[in-house]
What does this fold into?
Amino acid sequence: MKKFLSLFISLVLITTLLAGCGPKQGTSQTEEDTPKSNTTETTEAKEKTPEKEQTTQTPTTETTTAEQKIIFALHDVPDGIDPNVTNNSFATPFLSNCFEGLVSINEKNELAPALAEKWTISEDGKTYTFTLRDNLKWSDGSPLTSADFMYTMERILKPETTCQNVTMLTDYVVNALACYEGKVPFDQVGFKAPDEKTFVIELMDPASFYIDILSLFIYCPVQKATVEANGDKWTLSADTYVVNGPFKITKMNMNEAIVLTKNEHYWDAANVTLEEITFRMIKDQATALLAFDSKEIDGMRSVPMADFARLKAESNDLHIVPSYATSYYLLNNAQPPYDNVLVRKALNLAVDRNSLIENVLQGNAIPAYSLFAPGYIFNGKDFTEGRSNYGLSANANVEEAKKALAEAGYPNGEGFPTMKLSYYTSPQVKLIAEALAQMFKENLNINVEITNSEWAVYYAEVQAGKYEVAAMGVGADYLHPMSFAPVFISTEPTNDTGYGSKFYDEKIIAAKKELDPEKMLNLIREAEDILMEDYPFLPLYHRSSSLLMRDYVQGWTLSPTGNFCFKYAKVVK
Amino acid sequence: MYRYILKRIVMTFLTLFIIILLTFIFMHSVPGGPFTREKELPPKVVEALNKKYHLDDPYPKQFFDYLKGLVQLDLGPSFKYIGKDVNDFIIDGFPVSAKLGLITLVFILLAALPLGILAALKNGKWQDAFVMTLATLGVTIPSFVIATMLIYFFSYRLELLPTFGLDSWKGYILPVIALGGYSISFIARLMRSSLLEVMKQDYIRTARMKGQTEFKIVTYHALRNALIPVITILGPTVAGLLTGSFVIEKIFAIPGMGVHFVESVAQRDYTAIMGMTIFYATFLIVMIFVVDMFYLLIDPRIKYE
It folds into this structure.
C-alpha cells in the first residue's frame, strides 16, 4: 500500500510537470539530485558513505562465472556525447566509460596516469611534458599518438566546434585565447608534440591545480579520421563513435538503449571484467523503480524522491555518494535591501538548515556555511577541516538574526520590503523555497512572495540580475576547491551574484599562481574568509547523489563530481 | 471534384504557412533561449553557438532561410542535440510511434464500435449501463493514471508483462490499453448516441415495416449513417495516435517522437519546435482530408464541388 501511495505521489509530480509546461528534467538536476560533470572518483565518498556502500564499492578478487552483463536505467538524454563539446552531466555515464585523457582520478580519488604514462612539470610550473603509453590504440585498432592530441586541441580552439568548457583551455594555455579569437594561428599556441609519444603544454601562468583540470573530458583526444569524415555526426552512430576508453558503444539509440561492450584495444583491457553495459533510457522514475523492483534492470541512476525514505530504510541497493557541490540561494548584492551585509547576515542566521535537510531532503545532505564543499583531500586532510562556520549553525539562530536585522534598520522586520523569492520549477526546489519563506516569516517577520518559472526563463533572468533571492547551486567541474572560486570573482562573466570584492579576487589570483599546493589552499581559505565576512549569499547544504544498484554488481565508482565508471566493475553472483 | 482537391491543396499550404509564421513569432517571443543550459556557458561560446546556428541573423532572414530549407524537406539542425537534425527525430521516432498508434487504432475500433452498438441496441438495459459506466471511467481517468495502474498490477504485482519498452509483442499490451482508453470510451459513447439517433429515423421504420431482419437493418441501413460522426472524430484521433503521446511514451520508456513535442519547447530547441509543429499540422490536415474523402464512400448524398 505504501508503495502504491508513493506511486501516486509520483503521479502528482508528473501532473505538475505537465502543468508547468514540462520543466526540462535536466534543469531540476542542476540544483538537486545529480552532481555536475567531469572527472574524479570517490575516496572521500567512501569516508562518508554508509558501510554497505563500501562493501559494494570494493572490488572482490574472487573469480566468477556470472554473466558479465548489466542493464542500467538512465533518466535523461545528454545534449551530446562528444567529450570535447559537451559539459552536460547526463553525458558522464558514456564519457566516463568510453574516453580517457592524459590523466584521470582513480577509485581512491587520487590523480593517476591514464593515457600518459608519466609527466614532468618544469620548475616555474608553466611547462607540462607528458609521455604517452606504448601502443595506445583507438577502438578501431588504429594507433593513438600525440598527433591526436594536437588535432583535438586545434579542434577545440575553433569557435565553430562550440566547446562548452572551452575556458578550461583558453584561461590557462599560452595563446589559446588568441587562437580562439582568430588572432594567432594554432602553431603558436602552447601545445607541442615533439615526437609521437610526447605531448607538451605551456601555461601562461603557473597553476598547480591545472593537472586536475586535465582530467576533464574536454581534454580527451578524439580521432581525426572519424571526426573529419562525419563532422558533427560522428557521435551519433556506433560505427563512427571511435573511442579510447575501457568500453566502446556497439548499439546506439539514444532515446531507447545504448549498449557498451568491452574495448579490446584499451591499454588496460586486461583489468576490465564487465563485458556489456546496457544503458536503458527510462525517463519516468516511477517506471524505472518498478522495473528495478521486478528485476528487469540491475540499477538506476535517479531515485524518486517519494520513495527515498522507504528505500533508505529497507533497501540494501541504495547507494548515496556526497556530491562535490553546494546548493544555495543568491541574494542580489546589487539591489537594496540585499546590498546591506547585515540583512544578508540576518537571512543567513534565520535559516534552519537541519530542518531543510531532515524534512525535505530526507537527510541526504549536510549543512553548508560557505561556498566550498568538503571533498578535496590534501595530505590526508579535507580542505574544509578546521574551517570556521562563519557564525552560522545547522539550526536557526533567531535571536542573533533578529539583532542583525534590527541593526540593519528593520527592527522586527518593520519596514522591510516584501521579499521576492524565486525558484525554478521542480518539486524539490519548491519545497525548499516554501520552507525558507516560512522561516523568514516566522523568524524575522519578513513577508515573502514566492514566484517560479521554468529553467530556461528562470536562468536567463538570474543571469540578467533580475532577481532578489533566487535558488541556485554549483557543482564543481573538477575535484579542487578552485573549481568553486569563479562564482564570486568580480571579473567572471558567469558571476550572477552582484557581488564583487577586490580582496577576494586578489586572494584567488594569488592562489592560482601559487606553486606550493599547501600555500595555495591556505590562500583559498583566506579568500573564503573574506568572502563569508560579507555573507554575499545564502549557503544551504552540500547535497548527495543517490543511485540504486544490485549488490551483485561490484566495483563501480560514482565520483563526487558525477563520474560514473564501470572500468573495474564486475558481476558477482 | 479535381478542382475541389486542388483548392484543398492550396488551402493546406496557406494554412501551413500561417501555422509556421505564428509558431515562429510565438517561439521567439517566449523568454529564454536554446543555449540556457544546465550550466552557464561563457559568453564567447554562446556567441559561437548563435553564429553556428544563424541565430545572430535578423528574424526575417532566419524565417525565410527556414522556409527555404523546408521546401527541400530539411527541418534544420536541432539546437539542443549536437549533430542531430530535426529530420532524425522524425525518422527515428515516427515509425515507433506510428506502429504503436496503428495497433492502438485497430484496438480502439475493435473495442469501441461493438461496445457502442451493443449499448445502443440494448438501450436502457444493463449492457447499456455497463458500457456507459466503463466509458465514463475511460474518459475521466487520465491516461497516465491508467498507465501507472496497469504497470503496477500487470508488471509489478503479477509480473506478467514488461514494465517498459517495446522489445517483444508483450510490451505493446499495456501502452495500447493506456493510449486507447480515452478514445475507446469516447468513440463508444459517440457510436451509441449516433446509432440511437439513426434508429429513430423514418427510413429505419420503413425498413422494419418491409419486414427486414433487425440484423440487416442495423448493419446495412443504420450503421452507415451512424458512422459519420465517428469517422469525423477519427481524423484527429489518428493524427494524435500516430505522432505519439508524450505521457505514454515517457511512462513506458518508448523511443517515439511524442517526447519531442513537449521537451523541445522546454528546451527552446527552436528548429525542433517548428519541425514538430509542422509535422503534426501536416499530418492532421491530411487526416482531415482523408476523412472528407471517406464521407463520399459512406454516404453517396455527399458531394464536393
